[in-house]
Amino acid sequence: MFVVQGSSRANGNTELLTKVMLEGMEVETVQLRDKKIFPIFDKRHDEEGFPQVDDDFAAIVERMLLHDQIVLTTPLYWYGMSGHLKNFVDRWSQALRVPELDFKERMKGKQVYVVIVGGRDARVKALPLVQQFQLICNFLELSFVGYVIGEAAKPGDIMHDHHALDAAAVWNRRLKENG
Length: 179
Description:
Elements lengths: L1 E4 L7 H10 L5 E4 L25 H8 L4 E7 L7 H8 L1 H4 L7 H5 L3 E8 L3 H4 L1 H14 L2 E9 L10 H16 L2
Helix pairs in contact: 1-8
């Protein structure tokens, strides 16, 4: 399983909830905050196409493509995903145009799980973001398996959100059962 951590805070609520969900499982995790991923410079419609970019994006994608299950995690920032995760996902447009990468075909069928943690009423306020992830998965023919939304404000508060902790524990059991 490949975990893409989109939080800008180390050991924040999003990471804590993800750890509960994946406890006891073998995972490979990338912390986007520790990587250099430049925003997309959209050249889809230019004759020369996308320029080469000297950052960590390609290496992360290569690692991700080796896994059948992907967990995308993000705090709820302004009712959307974090900038770290958004830059990464936006660059998928560039990956789609690298013929030798065969990104869309290699992503097809992978299972995607999403972990989101926001403040008050996050279980409602994050639903448009869940829909965004569903649409991304539909476009790439990924299997959007499910999500967990937690509510937490200060560091460590997620450990008091029993609804989110219970949901993460259910996913943990399901993932372990389905190997």
